[in-house]
Amino acid sequence: MSIAVRDVREHELDSILALNNAAGPAILPLDVDRLRRFYDHAEYFRIAERDGALVGFLVGFGSGARHDSSNFRWFSERHQDFFYIDRVVVSSRRRGGGVGRAFYADVQSYAELRYPLLACEVFLEHDNDPVRLFHGSFGFREVGQNIMESGIRASMLTKDMSCSYDWVRQRYGDTLPDADWLVRPRNVAGAEVGA
């Protein structure tokens, strides 16, 4: 019953679309075109499997991306260098079973070597106390709120990773050692995700 986190594969996009759009009001719906842009351009797009079955996914972008999310833009206006978790979705029957924690451990270990700040948001319009508690337990703190174009109010959260990031930068500069676990999760075509 272990959880495996790995890069998404193109043939899994239909299953990811269905999982996203079944997640309920705490996750914005996706269409095929936007999901395809995520696949083609996200810096981090990984899935979680449990017992060989897809149980969730996480999509993230570095601050240099030309990503069209209003929440990403909010962080861009306030922070120069950050890694943004655009969405994390876990199958409803697997929530509370460690999948979210496995994702956040994986994305943090990726991001802290490359960015001094990890950023995400949680919608406030829904009963999201467990989600806010989850993020707080990972060291995220609210740094503001944003009313999205859809009218949804979001709590904007960040986690300072400068301790790890600064040490890595002082020791290695912009060139990380050649080690399998340090390879970028995905080799993407570019960094732009349009509307």
Automatic annotation (TrEMBL):
Keyword tags = Transferase
Q: Which SUPFAM superfamilies match?
A: Acyl-CoA N-acyltransferases (Nat)
InterPro entries assigned to the protein according to its UniProt record, in alphabetical order:
Acyl_CoA_acyltransferase, GNAT_dom, UCP028520
Q: Care to name a GO molecular-function term for this sequence?
A: acyltransferase activity, transferring groups other than amino-acyl groups
Source taxon at top rank: Bacteria
Has the keyword tRNA-binding been applied to this entry? no
Domain N-acetyltransferase, residue spans:
3-166
Note the Pfam families from the entry. Answer: Acetyltransf_1
Indicate what this protein is called per its UniProt record. GNAT family N-acetyltransferase
Q: Which organism is it from?
A: Luteimonas aestuarii
